Amino acid sequence: MVAMGSSEAVLQVFCGAAPFIKSDLTYPLGSDIKYKKKGGSKAIRLFKCSSSYHQFPTIPTIQSERLKSRKFESYSCKCLNAESASGFTTKNENGTWFVDNAKEFNTIQETGHPPNLLGLEDDHKLKKENESSLSDAIEKEAWDLLRESIVQYCGSPVGTIAANDPTSSSVLNYDQVFIRDFIPSGIAFLLKGEYDIVRNFILHTLQLQSWEKTMDCHSPGQGLMPASFKVRTIPLEGDDTATEEVLDPDFGEAAIGRVAPVDSGLWWIILLRAYGKSSGDMSLLERIDVQTGIKMILKLCLADGFDMFPTLLVADGPCMIDRRMGIHGHPLEIQALFYSALMCAREMLPPEDGSADLIRALNNRLVALSFHLREYYWVDLKKLNEIYRYKTEEYSYDAVNKFNIYPDQIPPWLVEWMPNKGGYLIGNLQPAHMDFRFFSLGNFWSVVSSLVTVDQSNAILDLIEAKWADLVADMPFKICYPALEGQEWQIITGSDPKNTPWSYHNGGSWPTLLWQLTVACIKMDRPEIAARAVKIAEERLGQDKWPEYYDTKKGRFIGKQSRLFQTWTIAGYLVSKLLLADPTKAKILMTDEDSELVNAFSCMITSNPRKKRGPKSSQKTYIV
Ligand code: GLC
Fold it and tell me: Is 322 in the pocket of ligand 1 (CB under 6 A)?
């Protein structure tokens, strides 16, 4: 049996209410909302801008007229203009949280000395000026390109296309707005104070959420957000001379490999919170349709299944790595985004009666999830040695080797690779299986969301520094390390010619990952690490025409099938630059551990026979 020991499953009930952003709202009666999906034979239905015909979930009774009128505004694309965000104020988060800025770090990194210490002030000054004007020019080009990638729907900006590559002969779906790809674009716009595009994106993708899409007669779960959508212009029904714009979502039913985009809804929640924090426009978060959208995503993720673990069970390719790479099961990236989305939703859900069950389930899951990841996904030298000496086939509640991991699974590369100082979360955990590959995004986002402890967060950054030559080398950042090679590549990827060793998802280098690295480094007050990576990227990205990814062990070549002018490469770079220039702004993406969760977590640790980490102080109880 692989479940937690009985002592860990002490029955505990969470009583605390989630903090809500604004408490003076009236919410609809009842939370058990039924959603109506339009039936019919057509597999593909589209959102039309020119017509009032939209497939919305049935809207519950609304107490407040104010909310009621807002709800109807969302039915028309034109209303979004009327609800212009100009007038919103960005929260003033000035303070002592962070003092230095990236330019200073760049100088110190490069010379090994603080500026003007060698008596070569003029040389340094000149070099610094040249560098910063080059950097300014690259930044300006990036902004121009980002703006060129904006997609309009009914006259309003709703997103950015994945790539704007004029050299590419087959566009595939790179002309679509991908939910995950838009996140750095959206953050860049928020940081610039341009809120409308993010607001429109949030509302339009919300409309697509409950849309019925099928694959061979099977519909995905309600609450699933599409992987991407496209704005199409089609002839107006009954009028050959006119056209209309429609939004056409793809939930994976057209995607290569038909993979379900589990991460879309999680990113949507994270972006929604960032929008609220950045713009100060809480009215969007309070809207009944937005609240319903959050709950639908949560209900889908928190639904009971057959699984014994608190981690989210998914099929292969459910996230940034959206093709077969052996990440099915409980991949780290999904767990980190899941945790982050739960933390963000917790702040945005009102503690009204109708949501109490959902909030309780959410809190319980947060505690169980962080316990599980911190305990079982974590590896460092000490833990590796523990695994090396594991006994197997233990049948008992208090087994040390709960998942029956055979020590021979420790890959030879890791024995050499693991630094003395540092550690990381492994890629996946299943019965008798640990995927020891280092997946960057999952590790970065575990730091950003406080899924891991402060010590573990610092250890992850220590490992990145220690393994710089492997993880960054000539281009940040390796999507995963190491690559699958030989027979392993054949079996796990199905001999995928796009995912050959050290290419694309299989150990390729993705510059978009810079922004998540930057947020993680700022959170741990170590921005100089990110600044160093940005500097490396900056030397090539513009010249190389902003590639999607780089190939080879050191990231020396532009990827074999890499798109150029890839939007999230451009936006990721911009977000990193903006955050390093003003690190306080990164707070819109971070979540800190809540004291109630910490207490509950300590409780679990104390009741865990193997490890004692904290005081037995909590009066709060949880069901786990
Ligand atoms: C590739 C990537 C995916 C990305 C998409 C659009 O499929 O794997 O993460 O969203 O391209 O850029």
Answer: yes
